[in-house]
Design a protein that fits this description.
The structure is a single chain. With about 140 residues, the chain is mostly helical. The protein has one domain. About 80% of the residues lie in helices and about 0% in strands. The protein has five helices and no strands. Helix 1 runs antiparallel to helix 3, helix 2 packs across helix 3 and helix 4 packs antiparallel against helix 5. The longest helix has about 30 residues. The radius of gyration is 17 Å and the shape is elongated. It starts with 5 loop residues before the first helix and ends in a 7-residue tail after the last helix.
C-alpha cells in the first residue's frame, strides 16, 4: 500500500525516538555530561533534557494521528531548524570544550536530517492530498 504519509510519520517517529534518548541522557546524566562537555552548570543540560522529553511527547502525539496535520508538521520542522541555528552561537561563543563542540555539532546534524526528511514528507503529503473545491 502506498501511504503518502509514511515518510512524514516515520521521520517524526525517528525524531521522537532520538529526542527521547537525548532527553533521558541529558536529564539523568546531566552531571557527568555537563562535566564532559565543559558546561559550568549541569542544570542547563537537565532543563534541556526535560524540554526534549516534552518535545518527544508532542512528536509521539502528532505522529500517531490518522492524518498528520501538515501545518503542525511544518512547525516541528521550524523547531528543528531553530535547534540547528541555535547550535551555531553555542559552539562559536559558548563554554563548550572540544567534546561538547563535537557532540553539539553531531546532534545538530541529526536534527537537520530530521528537519529535511520531515519537510520532504510534508511536500509528499501535500502533493497527494486533493485540494477541496470552493463554492
Amino acid at each position: 500500500m502506498n501511504d503518502p504519509q509514511r515518510l512524514l510519520r516515520n521521520s517524526l517517529r525517528a525524531n521522537g525516538a532520538f529526542s527521547t534518548l537525548s532527553g533521558l541522557a541529558f536529564t539523568f546524566g546531566s552531571g557527568a555530561l555537563a562535566s564532559a562537555f565543559g558546561l559550568p552548570d549541569p542544570r542547563i543540560l537537565f532543563a534541556v533534557g526535560l524540554g526534549l522529553l516534552g518535545f518527544a511527547g508532542c512528536l509521539a502525539f502528532v505522529s500517531s494521528r490518522p492524518e498528520i496535520p501538515t501545518g503542525t508538521a511544518l512547525q516541528i520542522v521550524w523547531a528543528d531548524l531553530a535547534w540547528v541555528v541555535g547550535t551555531v552561537p553555542l559552539v562559536a561563543l559558548g563554554p563548550l570544550n572540544g567534546t561538547g563542540t563535537i557532540a553539539a555539532l553531531a546532534i545538530a546534524d541529526v536534527v537537520l536530517v530530521f528537519a529535511i526528511l520531515q519537510y520532504l514528507g510534508v511536500r509528499r503529503v501535500r502533493r497527494r492530498t486533493p485540494i477541496a473545491a470552493t463554492s
